[in-house]
Design brief:
Blueprint: H1 2-7, H2 31-45, H3 51-56, H4 62-77
Length: 84
């Protein structure tokens, strides 16, 4: 969550939780800021999100980003995992 917050400009009074929207009254991430945060997450965690996984993900909340990270972490651990 810290990597998302580094790119965020939270709305007044917003205390980020997994249910916090990435925009629209939440973290107020622009599309560019979200991409930068995703790249930072990849670099920090040694992940490489597939284009399909990233493009198919509905990233509306902090929990959605966490789910993407968890999904990609599992696929990195399981060489037989496919993106569905």
């Amino acid at each position: 969550m810290d990597l998302l917050l580094a790119e965020a400009c939270p709305a007044d009074g917003v205390v980020p939780t997994p249910q916090t929207p990435l925009s629209g009254g939440g973290l107020e991430l622009t599309s560019l800021a979200l991409v930068r945060a995703i790249v930072s997450i990849e670099d920090s965690l040694g992940l490489n999100f597939s284009d399909t996984a990233f493009m198919d993900a509905e990233l509306r909340t902090v929990a959605d980003v966490l789910a993407l990270v968890e999904s990609e972490s599992r696929s990195d651990e399981d060489p037989n995992h496919t993106d569905g």
